[in-house]
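Incident review: delayed structure delivery

Summary: a single-chain prediction request sat in the queue longer than the usual turnaround. Root cause was a stuck worker, restarted by the on-call engineer. No data loss occurred. The affected request and its eventual output are reproduced below so the record is complete for anyone auditing the incident later.

Affected input:
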Amino acid sequence: MRILNQTRNTVLAESAVVADTIASGFIGLLRHDSLPQGEGLLIKRCQSIHMFFMKFSIDVVFVDHSRVVVGLVRGIKPFRMSAFYWAADCAIELPEGQIDRTKTFLGDIISWE
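Output delivered after worker restart:
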């Protein structure tokens, strides 16, 4: 799936996978050694993420049910937890630095296809 920042006309991920169950959301990227540029993970029904047992840092974009960005976490490191974003409906995990590369800000509109 492709994830776009409609506000900035940039591509957050060319090839993203959806985690839409509790198990797939909890496991997330734990089995990966890295997250290559262009890839991502969309976790549905998610207001916070954990990095327990992860091997690399990532960026995370939290969006609400209208797909508006309500939270941004840059370069979260392994064995950390993000803040809890009450308004969030989904979390998009991306390679570290992708938030800045795509100039994504709070209030931007995100879409996926």
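Verification: Residues 50 and 87 are 18 Å apart (CA to CA).
Action items: add queue-age alerting; document worker restart procedure.
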